[in-house]
Amino acid sequence: MKSWIFEEWCRTRKEPFFPLVPVDLQCDKLLYMDMTAANQVLTAEVVADTAQFSAYITQSLENAGARYGIGGYDEHRTVYQRSQVFDTGEEPRRLHLGLDIWGPADTPVFAPMNGTVHSFAFNDAFGDYGATIILEHAIQEDRFYSLYGHLSLKDIESLQVGASISAGEVLAHFGAPHENGHWPPHLHFQLILDMEGKQGDYPGVCKFSERERYLQNCPDPDLFFHWMSLAIRS
């Protein structure tokens, strides 16, 4: 599927997508969270230590009176220096391809639309996705995919490939660090037009030199929700 066709479908779809997490946009605040070099509070020492990194997220949300932290798509991030997963020779992977929602562990994650389970896995390397689920969705004869990373292990224990998932169904929960790739609790949500044969995994971060190719295959998740325009900036 061409990215422009997908984007047009999102814009013209009359039925709203179900929110990914419990949220009341009439009263809940969303905080934009910057993970680039511009955020000088996130030093190499802080991001290398999961407990310190988690404390930073929690305190930032409390200070802003925000329910969730939001951000990340097409963001060139320094936080990936914390893991060798993103070191790929001369040019490391640093460009984020999904939308992150930061909040408490065990926060429920809802399916935004009907789909089926394409694949799932426990990607357990330090800095990886941890427990991961990928759904397949249909637009007439075309297919696209949604990826949910940094989940709880309980969410994949009895999951079956091909299982039907309904919009609004509880799909998963934010995982604790020991099961989410050793990150502060959050959801990585990513749209993918072509899985390129991959199962249970797809890059959520790419080299900057590959930016255009990956952004074409991974459209902006905020096409679904438009939450970035609502997020406050500290």
Describe this protein's structure.
With 234 residues, the protein is an alpha+beta fold. The chain has one domain (3-11, 27-225): Distorted Sandwich (Glucose Permease (Domain IIA)), CATH 2.70.70.10. 18% of the residues lie in helices and 26% in strands. It is built from five helices and 13 strands. It has helices at 3-12, 44-48, 50-64, 211-217, 222-225; strands spanning 30-32, 68-71, 75-76, 95-96, 99-102, 108-110, 115-123, 130-139, 142-151, 164-165, 170-173, 186-192, 205-206. The strands form three sheets. Strands 1-2-5-12-9-8-7-10 form an eight-stranded mixed beta sheet, with helices on one face. Strands 3-4-13 form a three-stranded antiparallel beta sheet, with no helix packed on it. Strands 6-11 form a two-stranded antiparallel sheet. A hairpin with a 6-residue loop joins strand 7 and strand 8. The longest helix is centred in the N-terminal third of the chain and has 15 residues, at 50-64. The chain is globular. The model has no long low-confidence stretch (mean pLDDT 95).
